[in-house]
Amino acid sequence: MEKAQIVLITLVLYKSLLIGIGVWASKSNQSGDDFFLGGRGLGPVVAALSYSSSAASAWVLLGLTGVAYAFGISTIWLALGSISSMFVTWYWIAPRLMNFSRKHELITLSEIITHRVEGAWRSRVMGLCSLIIVASFTFYVAAQFQGAGKSFASSFAMSTEASIALGAFIIMVYTLLGGFWAVSITDAVQGSLMALAALTMPVAAFIAVGGLSGLLEGLNAVSTAEQLSLTGANLGLYALGVIFGGLAIGIGTYGQPHLMARIMALRDEKAMRQARTITILWYLVVFLGMWFVGITGHILHAGLENSEQIFFVMLDGLFPPVIAAIFLAAVLSAIMSTADSQLLSAAAALANDLGIGGDDPKRVLFISRLTIVALVIAAVIVAIYLPDKIFSRVLFAWMALGSAFGPALFFRLAGLQINPLGLIISILVGFFGTVILSFQPNTPGDILERLLPFCLATIVLFLSKNKTTSGASA
């Protein structure tokens, strides 16, 4: 049996499982709380794996391996930045967010941020949050669809356009059917596949390069001085830029609505503590494992024109067709685990946060599903007609959301007063600061784009926190 046939059979079985989960989960959706948070009954294993796989999408399996392949050892700071932000999220944010959302019966990140904001101010902030979420997720989901296109195109005689449309359709179907439960359970399955790939591929690559001695000799033979340096051969302030710019990528974590939803959906504090342990182990395995795959890939397949293809090249070189097919499913898992979560969060932003669905549960579900369809269509158009590097596109949306919403989330959970006007200005500064800096020449480690908007947004909140506007305070 040829490789393409094995891959096809594996994917058909896998997609059938996902759609089956969607059909099963659809029976549990009776209200917006069910559709968006699964009735707050998420267990630790599903919560941890769905959180992790939603955070580590195609940008880790394809993007992180690609930049590690191209730029070398200094990219370790990207992995460490993501890991460190996960610790902050699960040790500081998670216990506060879970209790806060339950106490006040809030189901989205926007509702957390706008809690106690009243009247016209609430409508303004909600509208701004929804607009930013939908705009950012359109580009974010488009990046996932591009990853799907690359995955299919690497195995079948399909055009990129057809591959993108097929992957988008499958994601849309089970998200429409099952809502949060379907998304969370399928994400858990996909997270397990990603962890399996991240465990076995580095081991196989380490053996293929000849162990530690072969690794060191190979790096010296094919790498430049910049690729062998922890700072990209930069010194002084430039070296600090590379280090802290890489670490700052974790800031984006704090403003991701789909990640915070996993925490709000946990059933109790015991489940939260167990989920935290599982998430820590998963992050260490996947982020460090995929970084190592990119580093060893540079030795085994030097001169690759498109660095984001190194994952597929390594699959072909390290494993027999059956195993390669399973790991190809892992790539699609990464794509779907993020795309489905973001589609659901965008639906929540419109149907729940803006109150478009009103008080009728059936209408809320209808508007939510309509939003998902519209966003899928928009993301497919962007993916096909405005293609970009997966890593670049994901990173832009990731940092924009983190800088826009992260500071407000920290202030809210810390119990600090938030002035409505200051809140709006902070969100605008964080979001548009990231947009503007993304068009500027890169600084070492992209430190300005990744760190400055978040810091400025935080300063705005701090300066306005004791002031009031039109008698309104948050």
In terms of topology, how is this protein built?
Layout: H1 3-26, H2 32-37, H3 44-55, H4 58-71, H5 76-104, H6 109-113, H7 119-153, H8 160-208, H9 211-222, H10 225-228, H11 236-247, H12 257-264, H13 269-300, H14 310-318, H15 321-353, H16 361-385, H17 390-413, H18 420-438, H19 447-464
Helix pairs in contact: 1-8, 1-15, 3-8, 3-12, 3-13, 3-15, 4-13, 4-15, 4-17, 5-11, 5-13, 7-8, 7-15, 7-16, 7-17, 7-18, 8-13, 8-15, 8-16, 9-13, 11-19, 12-15, 13-14, 14-15, 15-16, 17-18, 17-19, 18-19
The CATH architecture assignment turns out to be: Up-down Bundle
Helix and strand succession? HHHHHHHHHHHHHHHHHHH
Largest sheet: none
Radius of gyration over all CA atoms, rounded: 22 Å
The CATH topology corresponds to Sodium/glucose cotransporter
Low-confidence stretches: 467-473
Instruction: Kindly report the average pLDDT value.
Output: 82
Descriptive report:
By secondary structure, the chain is an all-alpha fold. The chain has a single domain, classed as Sodium/glucose cotransporter. Helix content is 78%, strand content 0%. It is built from 19 helices and no strands. Helix 1 packs parallel to helix 15, helix 8 crosses helix 15 and helix 17 runs parallel beside helix 19. The radius of gyration is 22 Å and the shape is globular. 56% of the residues are buried. The C terminus is likely disordered.
What is the structure about, briefly put?
By secondary structure, this protein is mainly alpha-helical. It is 78% helix and 0% strand.
